[in-house]
């Protein structure tokens, strides 16, 4: 026998991202990452790749299934932009202190075809706030 990871429906992931791209206020970067500014921060500096950043976030699949939440843990997570998925790396380096964004991460900027654990199937688009 062999193990085949669960895969998300590619057409549904693509359609979801295409619909989000059409929404008012959503910005599409050349990489395919989509984001919407929910709150403008007061900071002026963008973090460097190795700068520790304190972040609160909630991560969901496109159907709303939550797979991680620093809010539920009761404390922000600390990591550098190089310690996270590609979509986060790109977004974090564009943000300033106090920004609150919603990210729509295509599979290739998230966990790709491999997924992550049992909660994120391969090929999943991800939503973070």
Automatic annotation (TrEMBL):
One of its GO terms (biological process) is protein folding. Keywords: Isomerase, Rotamase. Its EC number is 5.2.1.8. InterPro entries: FKBP2/11, PPIase_dom_sf, PPIase_FKBP_dom, PPIase_FKBP_N. GO terms for cellular component: endoplasmic reticulum. Residues 50-129 form the PPIase FKBP-type domain. It catalyses: [protein]-peptidylproline (omega=180) = [protein]-peptidylproline (omega=0). GO terms for molecular function: peptidyl-prolyl cis-trans isomerase activity. This is peptidylprolyl isomerase. It comes from Alexandrium catenella.
């Amino acid at each position: 026998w062999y193990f085949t990871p669960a895969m998300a429906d590619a057409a549904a992931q693509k359609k979801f991202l295409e619909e989000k791209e059409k929404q008012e206020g959503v910005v599409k970067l050349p990489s395919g990452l989509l984001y919407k500014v929910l709150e403008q921060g007061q900071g002026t500096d963008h973090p460097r790749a190795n700068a520790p950043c304190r972040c609160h976030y909630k991560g969901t699949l496109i159907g709303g299934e939550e797979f991680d939440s620093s809010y539920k843990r009761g404390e922000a997570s600390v990591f550098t932009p190089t310690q996270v998925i590609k979509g986060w790396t790109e977004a974090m380096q564009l943000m300033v202190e106090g920004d609150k964004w919603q990210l729509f991460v295509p599979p290739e900027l998230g966990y790709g075809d491999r997924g992550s654990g049992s909660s994120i199937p391969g090929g999943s688009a991800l939503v973070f706030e």
